[in-house]
Write a structure and sequence with these properties.
This protein is mainly alpha-helical and 466 residues long. The strands form two sheets. It has a five-stranded antiparallel sheet, sandwiched between helices. Strands 1-2 form a two-stranded antiparallel sheet. Strand 1 and strand 2 form a beta hairpin. The radius of gyration is 24 Å and the shape is globular. It starts with 21 loop residues before the first helix and ends in a 15-residue tail after the last helix.
Amino acid sequence: MATRRRTATTNWASGNNAPDGPTAIDNLQSAKDEYQLVDYVPGLPSSVKTLPRQERFSFFEKVRLGFLLIVLGIGVFIDRFLTRKWDKLSDLLNVYGWIFPKPPTTEIWRDDAFFGRQRLVGVNPFVIRLCTAIPGNMKENVNKGRESLQMVLQQKSGKTDFTLDTAIQENRLFIVDYDILDGMKDEFGICSPIALLLVDAKNELMPIAIQLYQTGENNPIFLPEDPSWLMAKLWFNHADSSYQESFSHLGVTHLLMESVDVVTHRNLTTTHPVYEILAPHFLYLLAINTLARNQLINEHGIVDKTMSIGREGMFEIIRRQLVKWRMDEDGTLPEDLEKRGVVGDGILPGYYYRDDALLVYEAIRKYVHTYIHVYYDDDGNNGKLQVSNDAQIQAWVAALIAKRELVGGGCEIQGIPLDENGSTISTCDQLVKILTSIIYMCSVSHAVTNSHSTNSTASSQPTPWA
């Protein structure tokens, strides 16, 4: 792989290549010189100062990527030559042809059921939560349109006495609230919508109301029978895809994990057990992110040209959400689902991301637990080390929680399971939780938000990085 490699079988107990052996320590000092964190953009996760030679794409990876780009370029040229002019919305389908086949979603993207499925099995299934009360910013509109909304509820539920209170009591009402985007309209042209969704009589999640802004005049609530309902859904999806690409994808699985990658190289020798379990999940991460900073999120780069919010809009979304992100909640799947109220018997049927991800998360956790207990024991039994006595682990944890700085500093990750002193860890359980979260973010979470092959939103922009 492209990261620093161990050159011999690990000998934990002794020898030059042991994690605390002289050769390993010398290599670690070299790594501190090569892997340095800098504050690329204020308020965003720190990034590697310069790409270390070992992190560059291999020759074969360059050939593979080059071939893909050539094929894509030829396809774009052919399709542009054959594509007719766009005069109306339906003409957009002209872009699909022999090179780029028409996706099946072109036939169903207007459907409310599809809109609901996007919240559950699309590229951003991390936001929906159980609605236990109508948010204050939506109450006035809901009260004004209660009669019309009541008709929608009765139609979707198949019951004449079904009300909003009934939906809440039966755990059938869900909400996606993008209050994090409030105030971004004037500068970035993005709304801050709230959507209410109901599990209907067929156990399908259906949108029943959308409000496009948190506050302000001329801010109505849109219902399925309104003439502007499709437009409301499009504006909602524009906000959803902007958040997804900015924070769910770029902010967490790329930029935040890059800072974790760097401090791992700076604080753990290549023969350290924690380094060895993490290294495969960092493969090409620094190279991909460096390429993104040079060509995608650079000024006047691809993001500025293809996303309506541009790079400054992306950065603003990341800044706003990063200060709220916690490893023990947002970065730990079972706790995240629990916090959003989307676990339990009969809660939110069809939430296949949750169902599948929990299985993979548990497999990762069990693997990490078994692996760590090969080397560590809380009481030091059977000649194993104690986490509390491992200086490299303690230095690594310190870097994970250290504040970001213009040069140097750490990841500034909140919610790491620490001891009461707020600066160390002392148990295998704490270490397992941290490693499980990092591996999950780099693998499952990234796969979902980057290349999840369910019916993606018709109004979202394409993913510009891997």
